[in-house]
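Anyone else keep sequences and structure tokens together like this?

Example one:
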Amino acid sequence: MENIIISNPLRLDKIKKSFQSLQPSQIQVISDFDRTLTTNFINGHRAPSLIGLLREGNFLTADYADKAQSLANYYRPIEIDPLISLAEKREAMATWWRKHFNLLISSGLKKSDINQAIQQRSLQLREGFHELFNFLQHKDIPLIIFSATGLGQEGIQFLLRREKLRGNNIYLVANSFIWDEEGRAVKVNEPIIHSFNKNETILQDFSFFSKIKDRNNIILLGDTLSDIDMVQGSNCNNLLKIGFLNEEVEHNLAAFQEAYDVIILHDGSLEFVNNIFREIIL
């Protein structure tokens, strides 16, 4: 496939052989959500984020966008500054998201608005996800979906429901809200997931941790270099990393080849992923 790059063919063969010797009960799949399980582009246009869907649909108060941008203008430089320590970044990102969640609440966020935005189909699962979902469900392999976006859990749940994908092997590690009887957001649930704690360490705070803690062989799907950190804190014996490089390929390819075993270019489908899953999980 012309859109597939194998960083090190010999290493990939070795990883595949290691997985072929395992039982499905020893394996888990960890994946980012936005632009990994969903497409980066729709009809040639960059797909919006979950929050972007709400903003563009005018579901929130008129001043939401400006206030959210002000927060981003302050905290985004901290997030990307290489001279700021990781501890400082973690504290700043937690503060940013907490302020943003309070802004969403004060801007009138309603659960029904999230559902309505999802139904508009401006967010699409990557081609081949239904096949991947069915395969993992059949093999009883957990799919842990990480999302540090502001509307992760509810938005993902509505999207899966829209696509008629229901199963007990999907676990969401994402931000979520507490809703009142009329479906208005009143509080954000803890722990808050952000770009610097999006890893397996935080899974210990989730009820499903006991079901996956002894599955020490991981297949990881991501679309950024930082997505590799999702396995941080895990006791990992074997790791297969598959990355989606959706844009600016020439600029980012070398770094992706260092980080990922397989790279899928140009917003490609999950066809190769499904083929390799069938090959290594017997």
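And example two:
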Amino acid sequence: MTDGLTLQEERFGTFWRDAQPLFAEHCEEVGEPRDQFLRKNLELIKRLDEKGAWQCLTARCNGRMFGYVVSLIGPTLEAPDTRIATQTLFFVARDAKGMNLGARLLRESVALLRAKGIDDIFFVARNRGTGLRIGALFRRLGAEEYGQMFRLGKAA
């Protein structure tokens, strides 16, 4: 399947149109309803994309999308001359397992972010889906643990 494989940066419109089967699979993997992606804040994502505050890298083989990694790009409160990126969405289709596609996507995403002058890149490993195991991949890229994140939902 690696014949015809391309890693490419894509704008939101193309990504949204072609990634919907993957979104459904991604939602299912993290324990959400398969159509949960339809309830995301799409208007905000469009605006971020228009402003250059969104990087979407996809893996396609002969046109079909098999994975994606999305990062938000912006300033930080830490220093006025520092730009950061936070990886928010990361997924590889089940039928692409064994191709090392996740690592390839992440390495290429990091290279693109560095070429854009991004100083710090943050990776998110949530406690659902494959998130509990993904930290090992981040470490292989050279990332180090940077504390913990906690969520207090509106029901609390």
